[in-house]
Design a protein that fits this description.
By secondary structure, the protein is α/β, with parallel strands linked by helices. It contains eight helices and seven strands. The protein has a seven-stranded mixed β-sheet with strand order 3-2-1-4-6-5-7, with helices on both faces.
Amino acid sequence: MSNRQDTPTNDLAPVFNTLPTLVMFCKRPKLNQGKQRLVEMISAESALIIAQGLLACAVEDIQAWDGPVVIACSDEADMQWAQMLNENAQVVTQLPAGVSGNLGQRLNHVDHELRAQGHQHIVIIGTDAPVLNSLHYQDVKVALSEYDVVLSHAEDGGVVVMANSVPWPDISALPWSTEYLSQALAQACRHEKLSVHYSMPGYDIDYVADIQKLKRDLINDHRPARQALLITINQLFASLGGVCHA
């Protein structure tokens, strides 16, 4: 059974050849699922609210993207929910129904499926890096025209953007969710003779300390979802007695 909800027609092939495709990897925010490192200092309910705000920022980015958009959801049962995030996006699952795997396996699978459809330049984001802005994306687009792989390094050693103009090598065995990921990913690509470039760095939101930094960075970011997230953060932490200070 296909894991694709909307299969593009051949009429879109020229678009795939000229415009990069933005792929948002996402998991539907649920209580006690996702952003659990935040629960070390705040409630599960508050972590869920923040996760929803982070997702809204990523959705804001795919809505602003000039080119094809794909939402890769973690669970086949959430495909209809994912389609409602952006009615113009193509929705796929990260793995076939009934198959489990780590993030590397999921990335390999989605990359293979999209390239089989004609997508060539692919830019992958998650839903927890609201610091990403038009400068980050433009930097990735420009670099992707010259390099096989473009990575945006995260402060915690991971990546906040993964982009490729050729298929990924087998990245299933990399140290996902560790401080060594960015380096290991670059090494795996270079081992396969792929050219690698690091674009503008960023950071994702895992801990309360990340939210402290984000508060400062969002003050002058006037995008609606970012301002809504900033208001949410201020309200949540004010009610928690100022755990998070700018």
